[in-house]
Amino acid sequence: DTGVSQDPRHKITKRGQNVTFRCDPISEHNRLYWYRQTLGQGPEFLTYFQNEAQLEKSRLLSDRFSAERPKGSFSTLEIQRTEQGDSAMYLCASSLGGRDSYEQYFGPGTRLTVT
Amino acid sequence: AQTVTQSQPEMSVQEAETVTLSCTYDTSESDYYLFWYKQPPSRQMILVIRQEAYKQQNATENRFSVNFQKAAKSFSLKISDSQLGDAAMYFCASYNSGGSNYKLTFGKGTLLTVNP
């Protein structure tokens, strides 16, 4: 396994459209995280999964955002009715469970531009 | 809640010289980790070094070392013998290992330029 992968790497969409991003974690990692990084800021936590269960969601995750991890492997992050403020880099990370979960491995990110 | 502050938006260093990046944090937890991550331009974030809060000894990874001052809640990164490949955005981050929230909390980052 070569690491966390994300698809697509870049997405340009028009305001009001829906977009979906995919994250494939490192295969033996049962925890998966989504972060959002806007220009000039550090990544901010959005949500995380333990296997297929979504255990925490940030208040940043409005009702237009939904994330799934249906079989505890890959995850998708969907944004409905995109707004210009959604333009950001969306980062996925994965980790082992237990106390080793501090070691989070990041993917290359999906850069979203909403026009 | 945890907060992480990086007060240096940009830093520059001459190749082969030493540079120190600053970070302060705030947490009410007793069990936590601190990290420095490197994010090169258009490339993914990688972990540079980590420090367990219960350890008094400062972590070292080759040319990278930290100065962890627990009482002052300070966690600086020293890069020795700087190389052109060290140019990147550096993020300080904290992680609360004692609770059920497994998120990383990041600072805003410091953009490091290495001059040849």
Features:
heterodimer, A: 115 residues, mainly beta, 7-stranded mixed β-sheet, 4-stranded antiparallel β-sheet, 11 strands, B: 116 residues, 6-stranded mixed β-sheet, 0% helix
Q: Can you characterise this structure?
A:
The complex is a heterodimer of chains A (115) and B (116). By secondary structure, chain A is an all-beta fold. Helix content of chain A is 0%, strand content 49%. In chain A, the strands form two sheets. In chain A, strands 2, 4, 5, 6, 9, 10 and 11 form a seven-stranded mixed sheet that branches. A four-stranded antiparallel sheet of chain A has the order 1-3-8-7, with no helix packed on it. The N and C termini of chain A lie far apart (35 Å). The model of chain A has no long low-confidence stretch (mean pLDDT 93). Chain B has 116 residues and is mainly β. Chain B has no helices and twelve strands. In chain B, the strands form three sheets. In chain B, strands 2, 5, 6, 10, 11 and 12 form a six-stranded mixed sheet that branches. Chain B has a four-stranded antiparallel sheet with strand order 3-9-8-7, with no helix packed on it. The model of chain B has no long low-confidence stretch (mean pLDDT 93). The chains are: A mainly beta (115), B mainly beta (116).
